Amino acid sequence: MSLHELVTHPIYDDEPYSKTLEASLLAIKENFALFDKTIFYPLGGGQPGDTGTLEFPDGTSRNVTNTYRDREQTQQIWLELDTPLSEEHIGLSALQTLNWDRRYRHMQFHTCLHLLCALVDAPVTGCNISEDKARLDFDLPEPSVTKEGITEELNALIQKAAAVTPASITPEELASNTDLIKSADVAPPAYNGRIRLVKIEGIDTQPCGGTHVKTTSEINTVVCTKIKKVSKSNRRIEISWR
């Protein structure tokens, strides 16, 4: 099997709370490693790539410093390592251990940004998530919201304890339901002919490949710290932990 034919099964899609996983090493490329499956989420959609560690039965260990999806073969997910592995490790199993505290904060913020989408009636033009803050940019020429209002409404939605569940849709179905698309000028990626959706019960549904919490009550209390004009027609809304 050629390198291009190798694929990684994204365990994080269906099991975002998995913290460890045994997986087989398929290939290496410089200081990158490709496994048959992974719990590490790759950089994308404003969410950072996961970090953590690898441990092989022979005692070899590596730090995972970032995770990326291959731009050409999008079913391959490459783990960036602090030190390259050797060819002799190909075919062996390794224990993947996620930097869970970091990932969980990303999950909390990512779900919270979907709540923010439900509050602001404007296309999203940018997104960024970190451990201590997150933001969305909106095509919003005139400010129609306030920091105090966003803070109050976000926390009210969080307290609803609404269920957050994944679903999927075909590109053809999405074309008939364009109101689900919140991002301006960004087409949601399809894998194996399906586009992943994230549903927040009674609040929001939109295409998303990121990792999320099970219920909005897991987000905890947040505060809107900034509403900033970044261009003539764009407003940046930033949130952080209270």
TrEMBL record:
It is found in: Cytoplasm. GO terms for cellular component: cytoplasm. PANTHER family: ALANYL-TRNA EDITING PROTEIN, ALANYL-TRNA EDITING PROTEIN AARSD1. It is an enzyme of class 6 (ligase). The keyword rRNA processing does not apply. Residues 1-242 form the Alanyl-transfer RNA synthetases family profile domain. Gene3D superfamilies: 2.40.30.130, Threonyl-trna Synthetase, Chain A, domain 2 (3.30.980.10). The keyword Ligase applies. This is Alanine--tRNA ligase. Coiled coil: none annotated. Keywords: Ligase, Metal-binding, Zinc. InterPro entries: Ala-tRNA-synth_IIc_core (IPR018165), Alanyl-tRNA_Editing_Enzymes (IPR051335), Thr/Ala-tRNA-synth_IIc_edit (IPR018163), Transl_B-barrel_sf (IPR009000), tRNA_SAD (IPR012947). PROSITE patterns: AA_TRNA_LIGASE_II_ALA. Its EC number is 6.1.1.7. GO terms for biological process: alanyl-tRNA aminoacylation. GO terms for molecular function: alanine-tRNA ligase activity; aminoacyl-tRNA deacylase activity; ATP binding; metal ion binding; nucleic acid binding. Its cofactor is Zn(2+).
